[in-house]
Records
---
Amino acid sequence: MIIALACLVAFGALFYTLAVRQQDIPEPIPVSPIHHLEDRKHAIYDNLRDLQFEYRLGKLSDGDYQQTKLALQRELAVVLAETEETIKRLGLQQMRVAAENPAAKPQKTSTVCPHCKATFPKPLKFCGECGKAMA
């Protein structure tokens, strides 16, 4: 009896796992057409930063450092050119300009303590200078 029940549960779990319907599969998340270029750009910047760090530690000679740095900078120039070309080709320039528009960014607000007149970049419940309540 127990063996039959265990087999039934095992077959039920196997059937449930393998019987996935097409409508149950979620739609894939759309990826930006320049996402892979942005990833490559960040990787090159990381490589340049690591290269400079290793050079400062003395792990690289002057010649090796300059040669590798120049190769990474050339690769970065190609990636940046491809990014700009893709943006122009797809008409994404308007989206990028709107995202970089300084008028769209929220203005920085500062909070002033009513007791000691100290200013802080973020709103606080208590003053960081005198310790009194800001309200």
---
Amino acid sequence: MNDLDTITLLNRLIVTSRNGESALRAAASEAHHAELKQSLQEYSLFFAEAVREMQDTVHKLGGHPKGLGTFDNTLHRTFMHLRALVEGRDEGAILDSVESDEREADICFDDAVNHWDTSPEVHAMLERQRDGARQRHQAIRAMRGRLDTLH
């Protein structure tokens, strides 16, 4: 894969990760269980660090990294806030929203790791980020189960 293709791939993942970061931060602001709030905040920080690392790599490759997420994600976060205002802080609904975003991130990182021929350094970075996202996603799913037993 040439550098231009790698830059294009990384910029798509930057946007996906930025969307994940902002959605998780918004979900954390709506959650009321301290453990869930903290986990969502930590997960958003993971994506923020992934974005910084990918942006640095794009710079090293001579490209211009994306900085923002998508407008659709802004609408999604706004809808989440409005839904929380109307329905109360239904953490199940918050987690449903997070899960849909995380499925998208999982698909994008899996595709990047499994179907793109990147340099060994970029491949290792993407594998680490994919695995870190999966671990956090599984932790959120497990927390959902614990929260369901509390209600």
---
Amino acid sequence: MSPTVKEKKKYTYKDYLNTSDDERYELIEGDMLMTPAPSTIHQRISRKIEFMLEKFVTENDLGEVFYAPCDVYLDDDNVVQPDILFISKERSNIIAEKNIQGAPDLVIEIISESTAYRDFVQKKKLYAKFRVKEYWIVIPEEESIEVHVLKDNIYTLHKSYGREETLESFSLKDFRIRLKSIF
């Protein structure tokens, strides 16, 4: 007699909506993944980037900036909560009352020990699949930020910026961040 293989349950957006309000989850390719609370270093970096991005976007009337927790519904099998995201004014129709209904123009994820694989591999693949134009991966331990740009439905590394450099967004013309001001 051969052993019985139990199939892993695939979750949907409906299941996601029934999760506890006490815990944060993301739904990636039907897998329900708990997201632990971020560290203080993560929060400090996030706050500084959010502030600079929000100021630039508002002053130039470019769209809206959101930050976690904010659900980004990509489809019934994929709902994520990026650390920071930007949606251009031209695509503001994807901003719904309860969540974002589609891929943002820019997503920023800040790596932590518990989310590194998810951010570097799973989400990177997912964001490319749903056509997020620009994806930043912030690496606090290295004091660096990788800027990935979507080309032919895959990400190419535009540039990796170190602490002493000034990051320039690929898609937000004239938006710059001196990295030593956030690390």
